[in-house]
Structures are given as structure tokens and as C-alpha cells.
Write a structure and sequence with these properties.
11 helices; alpha+beta; homodimer; Ubiquitin-like (UB roll)
Chain lengths: ~400, ~400
């Protein structure tokens, strides 16, 4: 079940980018599970990776390759995360890069590998390598939707977004795809996102752009508080639009950053809307905090509380669980007598106690929609933060109890 | 469902303590929901309370009363937590103390109130007060098991434990009761525990005793990472055993502390074994850490990971999820290449990668029993820590989605 997702929007071609997918039979026969995204020579790239200390072999390899050269291709497999696989796992990731490089006529270190799936088991490398020629044959400029489908794991729908923006008089395109759907938590939790633009951008600027965009999007979503070993978000810029090369400052950078952020935000929210077993999409906004860190801590504590999440699943305005979550958040100071709470437009708590005009009927009505906004005011300062999450349903347990079987 | 609990063990009488329970019809008609524990004049008391900043009215009142005088009685209600109820809630808690004090012939501030249940709604005070005379009539020395039943909420079985110990040549008894069963997390998560002994102990010593015991027991269990507004653990010492009054140092203190800790440990483990929807009882032991804090952080991150907990429910040796949890624990340093992991006696991970002698069959077999021990070695120092938790099942979602309905 997904909340308010109506399938893939039209994904615009990005000149200089071709993608394709094929079925290697890695985990489920017949399902497309290998994706290649190829970019023209001269494409700049920047990426952010998981902060989990057990990072997967492909993360280590991709980071190293990216430091060494501009990439010519990305190769992504599902089914196996290639994490916790030690040195053999590193060799597998490198072997995959070499094989693809040979077919594309580039160097192995110009290929960036990405994996998602079960941790700790070796990738069936022979099958993966055998599927590469077919994947390369599938490469085409309008391959985005195939690629979006090819990177899915427990996702129930493919995720993509596109924007157009004018930079120095030239129309520029930004298109991205992503996969979720569980183990989502700030700082690149199990999530892969690949975004490309035909804008001409310096590498430094591209880095700043993806950092800012990821911070406002992928680092603000949480499904279950778990973070993964494999997550990555890559931004490619082919330069084919012919715009004056975007440097850090100025209106062109702002416009590009806004477009990339919008794409990332739409992808991030789609991941939550398709969260494992999700029946509700919840925006949690914490305002009037002493710092943004405090606001984020409170928002994430609410968003990750299993008791709060099961209450959302039940459409139960059990606001006491939200207060209890606020009360245990790791913030240095909290004056409970200043805390106010709204569910949608219903004020539930005023100055730490039940609001005098609150009624259970109003609370129930506010919890009923599939999209809910929780707002908490801490009454302590001028900072705020917002995160997106989903509820915790029977299906979450089913999906995760049966994942490997 | 509970894991390895076979009902209430025999609970020994503690001279100087009488308890009783009655049905006030607070939430469910006919169910005993009010409990009084009365103690003789001269009884010393010490307590630890929730660290949640939204602490309930009864917590505030009990703490204040305890500072002012030695208690003569405890009054506990279920159904309503009396938290988030503002000043009216404080008055309700005080009114309850006054009413009971009148019946017992003591002062209101010699009564300590405790509540557990739904947050944010006022207690139906008239019904609670109307049931007090019946509760007082029920008071008797062997009332422990009635009291254990009377404090239950989503618990499926009553919880109690007793120990005998010799102090200075005198036989002394320690008996305790507790309730869980969700919202359990270190630092007095929704949990009430009442422990009594007939030992003669100074107040200072009693404080040290309950602090140490709670730290080794109630602060080492977690069901879902949520902590509550109401939790409390009280230790009463009537002095009726006639032993030489126990002061801080010496073998008598050690013996008493050991007995109280054993009772608390049995109660704490019973809470996890009866965790909401639990089908497995899991001991997580983290060794060779740089500090106890690091070990605890790693243990709690594993214990609270929904992905790890659903894998336990499915008996799936999905050890990658355990590694991912270790990798995101908030410890200052972690050398993943030194991490080892065992499930029961099966070594799964050696030096950060799959152990060469590990087989999936062995992993599956290790995950099958209802009691599982996970051991993680960080290879960084000489500290260790142990926590107890349970799995995450469909029933957890059902229980918490339907709690108020």
C-alpha cells in the first residue's frame, strides 16, 4: 500500500545520460535487477554516502573511484547488498566495474558500483556479469523508467521526478530516480538515489548542491530508525545544456539547487509514502526550538516511536504517546509547560496540558486522513525542523519478518 | 504470549506490609484496578522515578511526599496515567492521597500515589475514591498476589518475586511485584515496581540499594525504546526483622543488595518475557568495549532496531541487520574490522565479516529457540554491558493499535 502515490510521473530525458535494466536472476527470476546508467565523457559527479560504519564494499569502491576520476557509468544491482562480505566482497565490486568498463570502453575506476539487498551474502557474480551485455544493449536516453523499476527492492512502486529550470538563458533538465523503502532514517538510510542534469557545473558547486539538497530531503525522512550499510545519492552533471558553467555563488546556482532539492524532496517523500506497510504519510514539524538540532531530535524521536506509529496506524489520537516521546528526546533543556501540540489544525496540547478546547471527536477526525501534519512548538527559541515519516502497521512486521524467505 | 513464564511464584509475606486490591471500574468493569500497599509506622522508603520530562502528576506528588515524610501507604491505579493533565491532575493525585489517609488514620503526605494507563485524560476520581474503602478492607499480609494482579495493564500475567536472606543472624524477606509490558526502555520506562523487605535499613543505605538494583535490572530492559511518564520503583523497609540496622558498608549490605537485585532482575526479566506480543526472550551482551556507556549504546541500538526485532520474530538469522545496528550506534569510535558476533554458540561474524565456519543452517538453528543470546565483541577494551529485550511481532502492532479501543 502506498499513500498518495499515483505511479511514476513523466521522466524527462537528460542529454548525455542513457540508462538500461536487465534481469540477472540474482534473487527473483525474471525481475529486472541490474541497472546501468551511462554518462558522456566530461560528466561531473558528486555523491553522499551512508554514515553507517559498516559500509558496504560498493560504497568503499564507489567513493574511491569517484575521488580518482570522473565517472563514465554507474552499475546497480538489487538482491545483494555486498556488505559484511570482507575482502572477497571488495573484489566482487571491482570485478563488476571492470567487466562493465570493458564493454563500455572505459577504465574500471570510471565505473561506480552500488548494491542493495541482503547483507552478508556474496553476490552471485557470474550471474551479475552475464547480465551486463544485455543491460548495456538496453541503454537509451529514455531509459529512466526502466532504471527506476530495476533498482526496486521492497518498493511497491518505482520512484522518479523531473524538473526544468532556466540557467543563464538555457533550459536545463534535472531527473532523478530512487528506491526505498524500509531501513530509512536520516543520513542516507537504505536508499539509493541517482539524479542527473545536463547543466554545466563545477565539481565543487555540484558537491555543495547535492549536500544541501540531500540534507533537506533524504536526511529528513525516517521509516523505522534503522540506517543501512549501502545508501548513496549521486548527482551527475553532463554539461550538455551549454549554459555558462555554474559556479558557487549567484542566481544560477540558486536556481539549480532549488530544482535539485525539489527532485530530491519528491523522491524522499515518495520513499516514505511507499514505506514498508505504510498507510499514513506524516509530516512532523517542530518549531520554536533553541536550535535546529533540538528540533530535529524531538521530531525524530516522535517519528521513530513505535507507540506513536502504531497509534497513527489505528487513527487513534493518543497524543500522550507524542508527549512521552517529546519528554524523552535527547535535548539539553525542555520546559514542558511551554510545549504545544497540533494534529492538523486541531490544537491538542497547550502549555504542556490538554488544550481546553480539545475534544476527542476533533482529535479522531484529525487522525483519520491518510496525510497528517503534527506540529510541536517548544516555546524556547526561533529554530525549526521538519521530518517525514509513516505509520507502523501489521504489514511492516510481515514484510520484515519474511524479507529473506 | 509470554516467553518462559509459568505464573506467579509463591510470594513471601513481609512482616509490616499489608496489601489489597479492588475493582473501581476505572476502565474495564469488574477488573481489579486499585491497589493499596500499607506499611507500619517507621517504615523507611526509597524510590527511583522516570527520567521522562513529561512526568505524570502522581510522580511529582509521590516524589514530594517521599521527601517530606516516611510513607504509611502506597495507592496505585491503572487505566489512567494522570499525565499531561496539568494542575487538575495534581489535585486529583492529592485528593486520592487525602481520601486514603483519612481511612488509614494518617497524613495525606504519608501516602504515595502511582498511576498507569492512558496519558492525558483525567482519572474518574469519584469512582477511584468510592473504591478505596473496599480496597482497605482487603488489606492483608498475604495480599501480594492480589496486588500483583491489580497493577496489571497490558500484562498477560502477574509478576512477582521473593527472596530470603540472612542479615546479622536474622532471616529477612524481600518480596516485589511489577507491571510492564510495553513502553519499556532503560530509565524506568512504563513500569511500576514495588519491593518490600522487613530488614532494618537506614534511608541512605536503602537509596543506594534501590539505585544499584534498578540499574542492574529495570534500566537494562527494553521492549520498544519508548519510555513513559509514570514509572517508578519503590523499596520499602519495615524493620520488623529485628536485624542490626544495615548501614552502607559491610557484608549485611552486600547480602541485602544482592537479594533486592535478584528480585528486581527477576521482575525486570518477567516484564520482557511478557513484552507486548513477545515470542522470544533475547539477551544482548556487548563485550570488550572502551566504556560501559559504549557497550550499552551498542546493546540498546541492537535491542531497539525494528528490523532486528522482526528478524527475531521470524527466526531469521539476518545478522546483517545486527551489524547495521552496531554500525549506526552512537559511539565515538568503532573499528568494524574487530567486531565479532555470536548467536547463542554460533559464531556468525569474525573481525567484521562473515565467519568462515558459519553456515546458514547453524544460524537458523540458533535462532529457533524462544530464548536467544546475542553476543557482540567490539575488540576495543575491557568493558561490557547486557540488556534484555524481546522480538517484534504482529501482536505488538495489534496491542498498541487497539490499546485505547
Amino acid at each position: 500500500m502506498t499513500v498518495g502515490l499515483t505511479g511514476l510521473p513523466p521522466l524527462l530525458v537528460v542529454p548525455g545520460i542513457r540508462s538500461g535494466a536487465a534481469a540477472a536472476g540474482l534473487r527473483k527470476p525474471g525481475r529486472r535487477d541490474v541497472v546501468v546508467i551511462e554518462c558522456v565523457p566530461g560528466t561531473e559527479a558528486a555523491a553522499v554516502f551512508t554514515r553507517n560504519r559498516f559500509c558496504a564494499a560498493p560504497v568503499v569502491v564507489a567513493r574511491a573511484h569517484l575521488e580518482r576520476a570522473m565517472p563514465r557509468a554507474l552499475v546497480i544491482n538489487t538482491g545483494y547488498a555486498n556488505a559484511g562480505t570482507g575482502l572477497p566482497g571488495m573484489h566482487d565490486a571491482e570485478a563488476c566495474c571492470s567487466a562493465l568498463a570493458k564493454q563500455l570502453g572505459c577504465e574500471a575506476h570510471e565505473v561506480l558500483p552500488f548494491s542493495t539487498g541482503v547483507i552478508g551474502e556474496r553476490i552471485p557474480l557470474d550471474r551479475l556479469l552475464a547480465a551486463l551485455p544485455a543491460t548495456v544493449r538496453e541503454l537509451r536516453e529514455d531509459g529512466w523508467s526502466d532504471a527506476a523499476q530495476g533498482i526496486m527492492t521492497t518498493d511497491t512502486v518505482p520512484k522518479g521526478a523531473s524538473r526544468r529550470v532556466s540557467l543563464g538563458g538555457r533550459e536545463v533538465t534535472v531527473t532523478g530516480i530512487a528506491k526505498g523503502a524500509g531501513m530509512i532514517q536520516p543520513n542516507m538510510a537504505t536508499m539509493l538515489a541517482f539524479i542527473a542534469t545536463d547543466a554545466a557545473v563545477t565539481r565543487e558547486t555540484l558537491r555543495a548542491c547535492i549536500g544541501t539538497a540531500a540534507d533537506a530531503s533524504f536526511n529528513r525522512i525516517t521509516v523505522d530508525g534503522d540506517t543501512s550499510t549501502n545508501d548513496a545519492c549521486v548527482l551527475l552533471a553532463t554539461g550538455r545544456a551549454g549554459n555558462p558553467r555554474v559556479d558557487h555563488a549567484g542566481p544560477s546556482y540558486d536556481a539549480l539547487r532549488a530544482a535539485v532539492t525539489e527532485v530530491c524532496m519528491e523522491l524522499a517523500q515518495a520513499i516514505v509514502r511507499d514505506g514498508e506497510g505504510a498507510t499514513k504519510f506524516i509530516t512532523i514539524e517542530v518549531t520554536e526550538g533553541e536550535s535546529e538540532t533540538d528540533c530535529l531530535e524531538v521530531a525524530n524521536t516522535i517519528a521513530n516511536s513505535p507507540l506513536v506509529k502504531t497509534a497513527f496506524f489505528a487513527s487513534d489520537p493518543n497524543w500522550g504517546r507524542i508527549l512521552a516521546a517529546i519528554g524523552r528526546a535527547r535535548v539539553s533543556r525542555l520546559d514542558v509547560h511551554r510545549v504545544c501540540l497540533w494534529i492538523n489544525d486541531v490544537r491538542v496540547v497547550r502549555d504542556g496540558s490538554l488544550a481546553p478546547d480539545y475534544t476527542e471527536a476533533a482529535g479522531r477526525a484529525a487522525m483519520r486522513p491518510a496525510e497528517i501534519r503534527v506540529r510541536v512548538s517548544l516555546g524556547a527559541g526561533r529554530y525549526s525542523a521538519r521530518v517525514w515519516t509513516c505509520d507502523f502497521s501489521h504489514d511492516y512486521v510481515s514484510i520484515n519478518a519474511d524479507y529473506r524467505s
